[in-house]
Amino acid sequence: MKNGAILLGILILVIFSSGCQRAPCTDSDGGINYYQQGTVAVNNQLYTDYCINNEILDEYYCINDTLGNMTYNCPNICRNGTCVNMTPINCTDSDGGLNYYVKGNCTVSFDQSGGGVSDYCLSAATLRECYCVGNNLEYQDYFCPICYDGACINMTGNCTDSDGGINYYQQGTVVIDDQHYTDYCLSNETLNEYYCMDNESLGNITHTCFLNGICEDGRCVNRTMNCTDSDGGINYYVRGYVEIIGNPDFGTNGRKYDFCRHGNRLQEYVCLNGVYEGDHTYLCPDICQNGACVNTTGNCTDSDGGIDYYQQGTVVIDDQHHYTDYCITNEMLDEYYCISNTLGNTTYACPNGCEDGACINMSGNCTDSDGGLNYYQQGTVVVDNQFLYTDYCHSNERLNEYYCVNNSTLGNVTYYCENNCTNGACIN
User: Is residue 310 in some structural domain?
Assistant: First the structure.
């Protein structure tokens, strides 16, 4: 009887063990493979890799015939259950490159995907221009006199304005040589107003509809208010002040006075039709003094010969007024020049930066220590034996690579390293 019980126990153990035997585990992408979507089959259950969000992959795999699972942060993006390799293989630009006066469409292709972007206006005066450098997509911000629908526009010609000029309370359309520019609302409070200057040039101003006002259908909606303006409204050549009757807390002692900002910029406070319109910045053609523009016409000389963005010059009017070119920022130049014995002024976005009142000239004798576009070796570009530009890492994945174009001009491209970036080079 005792021997029979032992045999029965052994038989039960064998049956139980054979019933609990694990089925083999298989993985269609061969294991831990972040760049191919796979499906794990185990115990008659299927587990497919998927994207938790645009960056994180949930990866299934087999380990000793059991299910393994891990999350992985894709270097670029996660799509359709796999990390996407963002090494570009082709780039095209419909406007042919850096063409600020034509709206272009840039298309870039990758190993497993592709996409496109268009030139667009960052503001009424700044264009973001897409272009290709090799197979890589690049951007440049360019300062236009006026930016409209993804391109700088030609502002001169026969000009008419249906609302009669700067009129915030009526939507108007400016027509220049059969091109139409209609006032529109940037937001519920901000108006983009077009107008004619001297009946031949297009002007543009961004205006905020103040004090609980709103912008609708390309115009500000009028409000009733008791506001007066001592210079009659928009008058750049008389220093005025605005006041709101019955509001002593407005401004200083109930008044706000026009004033000059840096350079020849005037801050003009305005009331129109009894409504406070706030202030806007105006670029005086000559100079700004004591809260008003001043006509500056006389004998005019310019040491750099006119509009020369790459040489700092000084304009002298009647041997007494001096105006020297200067850098507004590391990229923006304020350039003075003479026009018919009158002071002229313009701002210019330097392609390679601004320094000591002039744009940095990147053309000349150019050498590159790593031989050109070499992502796996840190190099230094030398222009004219004085300007040095060394490759560096933007982040753990992005490399900023300098190179020479035709042995004379500095080039620059951002490259995504597959195996991280360190010490100014991709890891091979």
Answer: yes
